[in-house]
Amino acid sequence: MLILASAVFGLSFFLFGALLIPYLAVLFVFGIALGVIACGIVLRLGPASEWFIWPIPALISPFAGVFYPLSTLPRWMRALAHLLPPSYVFESMRGIVLKRPGSPLALLWGAALDVVFLLLASWFFRSIYHHAVRTGLIARYSAESLS
């Protein structure tokens, strides 16, 4: 993807160097939290619920400001966007690419939201897992995969 972005759009990510690492770490942790939530949903609703999981990143991307600044969003969408860690990453990175100084406070706020999302995802998965063990869902899904 780096080669494609460099060739097609003329972006050189190597100019940013180690500056990218904390931003990528925030995105990575948010992705883990989403993955844990997705696993919990599949565990609770069964393997057929996978169709429900795949669109989640596409539904989140407008609120994260992936393709355009958050200032272009309506006020209610902006309020939701400020609850998502990727919105802080993409806004900060957009500023850096446009030669404006990055905001360490925005990065810290995104990282703090990451911790909150990871804790909520862990709690969600733990409660689904305990429900699945009590009701026998795990045994049922295991038996379905054998046949």
Structure description:
The chain has 147 residues and is mainly alpha-helical. The mean pLDDT is 87. Helix 2 packs antiparallel against helix 6 and helix 2 runs parallel beside helix 7. Helices cover 74% and strands 0% of the residues. The chain has one domain. The chain is elongated, with a radius of gyration of 19 Å.
- What structural category do the secondary elements indicate? mainly alpha
Radius of gyration: 19 Å
General shape: elongated
Tell me the number of helical segments per DSSP (H or I, 4 or more residues long): 8
Biggest sheet character: none
Overview in brief:
With 147 residues, this protein is mainly α. Helices cover 74% and strands 0% of the residues.
What's the structural blueprint in terms of helices and strands?
Layout: H1 2-9, H2 20-45, H3 50-53, H4 56-64, H5 75-81, H6 85-97, H7 104-135, H8 137-146
Give keywords.
147 residues, 8 helices, elongated, mainly alpha, 74% helix, 0% strand
